[in-house]
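Hey L., structure's done. Input below.
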Amino acid sequence: MSKSVLYEQDKRIVKITLNRPDTRNALSGDIIEELVEYLNKADKDKNVGCIILTGAGKSFSSGGNLQEIKDMTTKDNMSLSELEDWYRFGIQKIPRTMNSIDVPIVAAVNGHAIGAGNDLCTMCDIRIAGEDAKFSESFLRIGIIPGDGGSWFLPKIIGLSRANEMILTCDVLDAQKALDWGLVSQVVPNDNLLKVAHETADKIASQPPEASRRAKRLLRMSQNVSLDKALEMAASQQSILQQLNDHREAIDALLEKRKANYTNS
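Output:
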C-alpha cells in the first residue's frame, strides 16, 4: 500500500507530497500523522535548507475528510470532550508543528486548496500557485469554523477584512485573485509549478543554512511582540550568527567574488 505522504530529498531540498489523490488529499488521520512526522524529520536534519509542500494529482488538498467529520457525531457518537480532543491532538498538530519548525517551507499549490487545505497553505512561508489553483475557506458551508488555526494564520497574510470575507462568504478565489490579495506570491503555468517551486527553494537553500533558519524564526517570533523585544531577539540571534564559520565564509566569498562553500558550522 502506498504511503499517504511522500518524503523525497535532493541534496538540501526536501519535497513533501500529500499522496492521497483519491480523496483529493483530504487531511485524514493518516496524512496528519505522516505529515507532522516528516516536517519534524526535515527540521531536525540540518542539511535540509528548504521544504517544498505539494499534493499528488489534481488537488493540493480538499481539506478535512467529510466522511470522517460526519462519522464523528453520526456513527462514533463522539462527546463534546472527545471532539475537542480530536482537534487538539489531531489536526491541530499541523499548525503547532508548522509554526514551531525553522526550516523554510514553500507551498506549490496545484489545483484546489479548500478549507483546511487552504489553511495548510497559509502555514507555509511562501505560496506559489499553478494557474488553475483555487482557494476557499469553506467551513461554514458544512456548519463549522476553521478549527485548524486558519483564523490565526489567514488575517496575518491577507488582512482581517479579506479574511472575514473569505471565511464568512465561503467564496472561491481563483489564482489571480489570490495573487491580488497577497495570498500567494506567484502564479505560474501548471506545468511549471514544481520547476518554479524548486527554483525558489534552490535560492533559499543556497543561503547560509543556520542563518536562514534563524531568519525565519525571528520573523515568526517578531509578529507578536513589541519593537523593543523584536530588536532584543535580533541582537541575540545576530551575535550567535556572527560567531559562525559560515558568516565569515559568506563575507570572504563576496569579497573574493566566488561561490560560497557553507559547512553549517
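The two ends are 40 Å apart (CA to CA). The CA atoms of residues 92 and 148 lie 5 Å apart.

-- N.
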